[in-house]
Structures are given as C-alpha cells and as structure tokens.
Amino acid sequence: MNTNFLPLRVATYNIHKGVQGLGPRRRLEIHNLGHAVEQLDADLVCLQEVRKENRRFQDHFTRWPDLPQADYLAPEGYEAVYRSNAITRHGEHGNALLSRWPVLGHAHEDVSDHRFEQRGLLHVEVLFHDIPIHVVVLHLGLTGGSRQRQIAQLARFLEREVPDTAPLVVAGDFNDWNARLESSFHAINLRAFSDHHPPTYPSRLPMLQLDYVYARGMQPLGVTVPKGLAWARMSDHLPVIAEFALPAS
C-alpha cells in the first residue's frame, strides 16, 4: 500500500446479547466474545445487541461480568461508547462502539419505526491519526418498510450532523438479506465494500448477508468474515471485517 495512505480496520458484530441457546441449553458466551473481539484486531468495532444490564441473567449466570458488556468487551487501551436502544422488563440493550482511537464526541438518535421494535442510531466521532472520522452503528428493523424509513432518517441525520467531506463509516446489522437498501445508501454517497457481500447469518451455516460496512471518503482494501465452530458458537451472526485506506494528512 502507498505510504501516503493510512490503513483503517473496521469490524461489525451482532453479539446476540452475549448469550446463546434456549431454555436449559442457554449458555453464557460473553467471555468468549471478549477473546473474539481482541482477535478482530480492529481500530473500530461496531457492536449490536449489547446489554448494559439484565437482572434475570445476572442472577442466573454466576459468571456474569460485573461491568456492562461494552466495557467488558473493550480490549485494553480501547474506549467504549454505548447507548441503549431498548428498555426491557429486566434491563436494557443497544449499540456500542469500541475504539482504539480517541473519542471526540458521541450522540444517539431514536430510529424506532413502530412500538413493537425499539431501534437506535449511535453516532461517534473519533480522531484517527489527527483525522476526524464519523462512525454510525445501526441495527435496522425486521420489515422492509421500516428499514427504508430508517435509512431516510439516517440520511437526514447525516445531512444535519456530518460534513459532506468527512470520512464516514456506517456499519451494523441491517437485516437486509436481499440487498434492497443498496440504492438508498448509494443515494447518500455510501458504498458497501464490494458487490460481493459475504454471508454472515446464521453463523453455523451462513446463507444470508445481514451485516454490512458502508463507507465514504476512504479507499476499500479488503473484506473478511471469520468462520469456524468457535465463531458459530458465540453468536447467531458472524462478524465482518473491512479494511480501508485514508490519505495521510
């Protein structure tokens, strides 16, 4: 790679609230996920379905971490930014960003489309080699209409909060299994890494692409999806790792 460019590694991962399985087969995976996040070795880790607390599981699992999941998963030297999307009977969960680089500021916007799904947008600005980069972490709705309206809300948010010339990453679980949102992202000058979207769901036998990294103002270099039994056990999604290059300032 040209030495006038700086490499940026971005990961997105739906961690399924750190718990897998149902009923008596339910198991705690948050400790394994901590090792997995370290292995991603990403500058920016965008997480969805992150629990701040869950009083029922905290009582059920003796090894439940004392810290909120975002703080627990942050490798040494990273800064964790978390904002809740959903308040439930036993606690709350939402999106998080783990950043190897200094955080300049962050904000949250409710993008819930109806009362049956609580969704949010996490916006974080980080300083990467003296270059401000804007990052948006999203977990979109389960219906096509909801997703389209949420992207329209995202477009209004970006127009209001992010300069057109600023490098931008939008990543998360978009639930866009048929790639219907691509033209909507193109309309706001955001591109997925490539025309080939590696499948990420379900993790044991991935057939659908639900998890994406879109960007503008940077050059794509490569994309990978870790696979294998260990990754399949930790969440129902696989992570996506995208690498980019930014012009050195």
Q: Explain this structure to me?
A:
The protein has 249 residues and is of the alpha+beta class. The chain has six helices and 14 strands. It has a single domain (9-247), classed as 4-Layer Sandwich (Deoxyribonuclease I, Chain A). It has helices spanning 30-40, 55-60, 69-73, 144-161, 182-187, 229-234, and strands at 5-14, 19-20, 27-28, 44-54, 79-87, 91-99, 103-110, 120-128, 131-139, 168-173, 191-192, 211-216, 219-224, 240-247. Strands 5-6-4-1-14-13 form a six-stranded mixed sheet. Strands 7-8-9-10-12-11 form a six-stranded mixed sheet. Strands 2-3 form a two-stranded antiparallel ribbon. α4 links the parallel β9 (131-139) and β10 (168-173). The longest helix is centred in the middle third of the chain and has 18 residues, at 144-161. The protein is globular, with a radius of gyration of 17 Å.
Number of helices, counting only DSSP H or I runs of 4 residues or more? 6
- Total DSSP E strands: 14
Average pLDDT works out at 93
Radius of gyration over all CA atoms, rounded: 17 Å
Please give the domain count: 1
CATH architecture: 4-Layer Sandwich
Write a short abstract of this structure.
The chain is α+β, with helices and mostly antiparallel strands and 249 residues long. 21% of the residues lie in helices and 39% in strands.
Strands, helices and their partners?
Layout: E1 5-14, E2 19-20, E3 27-28, H1 30-40, E4 44-54, H2 55-60, H3 69-73, E5 79-87, E6 91-99, E7 103-110, E8 120-128, E9 131-139, H4 144-161, E10 168-173, H5 182-187, E11 191-192, E12 211-216, E13 219-224, H6 229-234, E14 240-247
Parallel strand pairs: 1-4, 9-10
Antiparallel strand pairs: 1-14, 2-3, 4-6, 5-6, 7-8, 8-9, 10-12, 11-12, 13-14
